[in-house]
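FORM 12-B: Structure-to-Sequence Request
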């Protein structure tokens, strides 16, 4: 049985850190409000001329180095982003060229904050069906470019960054103890479009637009849908919440993360939280959190990880990974 096994991970954050205090000088907000409602203390913002592809390339180089592989070994790039460099071509092709990769396929996946889980699922399916053998799955975003800096309800919540993992198809017995992606579950509900979207696009307004969100509504859906999809993916692979070593959730709001951890009966020290440092980096948030906990030694080989996220669409999903 073929399974997609994680070979390594990497991440990259822009140099510039913007604290809540700094934001409060420009926007009618406060460090206290932001921390209490979201857990965010700071975010990283890309420099002028620093694009999503630049962040993605750096994260990919680090992931390849961690995996002990070269770009020439890779034959698939799946880049999850809602903030591509250009309308087309796929930002993934820029990453492909920059890494010096001359074969295989590279394309973007657009599922906003659920993008990384969607990307993992797509790459996993392609590896298991033999369409590719070694994949880079990247989440990279420059959400600072689509924020309305006059809307305090949204502009304080997001940041820029990128994270990546390398997956390789490996033959194995296919038990829950074997390493690799054990299962995925994906969902979307287009009826919820209006509670989180960008009010622009090439086909509609011919502008890039700004992010619009009804935070309270998204919050309610997040709590319900996360619990359901987590239960679904566990049931698919015949495991229970007690089997999970690490919850590595999308980092939108500490209160949502805590709620999911509590529902799973996981102690807080088994939940990876980086929203305080990175804010919400959309598709990049899960691989950024993953890289943090792998590199600081919390996550080790053989651990069972639950990745989950929800965002615009609404789109949501979860993946179970034996690290
Ligand atoms: O990654 C995609 C998925 N996204 C999410 O999961 C986000 C989910 N939603 C949330 O995280 C929360 O709903 C927010 C953090 C966005 C907002 O928290 P909330 O507790 O739902 O607050 P609210 O939007 O109901 O606003 C409460 C009050 C309002 O004032 P009034 O009407 O009570 O007087 C807002 O105007 O807080 C006010 N407010 C602010 N005050 C200071 C909104 N934004 C700010 C701000 N600073 N930045």
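FORM 12-B RESPONSE
SEQUENCE OUT:
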């Amino acid at each position: 049985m073929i399974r997609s096994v994680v070979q390594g991970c990497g991440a990259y954050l822009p140099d510039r850190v913007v604290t809540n205090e700094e934001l409060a000088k420009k926007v009618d907000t406060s460090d206290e409000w932001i921390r209490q409602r979201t857990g965010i203390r700071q975010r990283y913002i890309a420099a002028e001329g620093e694009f999503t592809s630049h962040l993605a390339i750096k994260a990919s180089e680090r992931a390849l180095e961690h995996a002990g592989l070269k770009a020439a070994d890779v034959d698939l790039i799946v880049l999850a982003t809602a903030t591509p460099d250009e309308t087309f071509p796929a930002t993934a092709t820029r990453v492909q060229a920059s890494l010096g990769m001359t074969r295989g396929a590279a394309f973007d996946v657009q599922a906003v904050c659920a993008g990384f889980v969607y990307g993992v699922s797509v790459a996993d399916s392609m590896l298991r069906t033999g369409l590719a053998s070694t994949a880079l799955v990247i989440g990279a975003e420059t959400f600072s470019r689509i924020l309305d800096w006059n809307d305090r309800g949204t502009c304080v919540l997001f940041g820029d960054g990128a994270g990546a993992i390398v997956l390789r198809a490996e033959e194995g017995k296919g038990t829950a103890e074997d390493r690799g992606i054990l299962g995925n579950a994906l969902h979307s509900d287009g009826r919820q479009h209006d509670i989180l979207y960008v009010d622009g696009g090439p086909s509609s307004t011919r502008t890039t637009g700004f992010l619009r969100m009804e935070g309270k509504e998204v919050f309610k859906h997040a709590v319900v849908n996360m619990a359901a999809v987590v239960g679904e993916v566990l049931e698919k692979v015949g495991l229970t919440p007690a089997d999970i070593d690490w919850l590595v959730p999308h980092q939108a709001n500490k209160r949502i993360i805590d709620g999911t951890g509590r529902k799973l009966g996981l102690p807080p020290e088994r939940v990876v939280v980086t929203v305080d440092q990175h804010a919400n980096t959309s598709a990049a948030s899960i691989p950024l959190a993953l890289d943090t906990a792998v590199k600081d030694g919390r996550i080790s080989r053989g651990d069972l990880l639950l990745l989950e996220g929800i965002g615009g669409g609404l789109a949501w999903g979860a993946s179970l990974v034996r690290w």
